[in-house]
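Class, study these two lines:
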Amino acid sequence: MANLRLIITALNKASGEINKVKNEIEGVGKSGKTAEKGVKGFGSSLSSIIGTAALVTGAVAAVGLAIREVYEDLKEGAQLEYARTKFDNLAESIGIVSDALLVDLREATRGTVSDAELVAGAANFMALGLADTHDEVVRLTRVAGALGMNMNQLVLTLTNQTTMRF
């Protein structure tokens, strides 16, 4: 019986220690669950921040591209306006209204050349003194169209006085 008492006493003392260990293990488990929630929350927050940063970066890039396109469009528009003003003034200097001259140039090329190219080419013909009248501008435009040449090529050929380009 003494042995049984010794075993029961040992178990009673040990059960207190076992309860302490059990409570500590439960505490660790609860802390682990809390930490897991925190890590998952941090991961979600981090992925949300990364997603937002990617969206902001994409938006900034899109705005930059849009600004560049607007700038290029404005630059091109200014160049066209300059060419048109030059064409208008040169047409007036040879005694014709620029709109009437443009209509005749379209007919001379049978509509195969854009208005911008017609305006630039005819302005070059007149500015360089290659054409002093309405008829000469139309004739040179018709020649460029018949040869399938860019009007600038014809201007270069005539100003260099060479026939190799033909």
User: Anything to note?
Assistant: Residues 103 and 164 are 31 Å apart (CA to CA). Helices lie at 2-93, 98-108, 115-127, 134-147, 151-160. Residues 2-93 form the longest helix (92 residues).
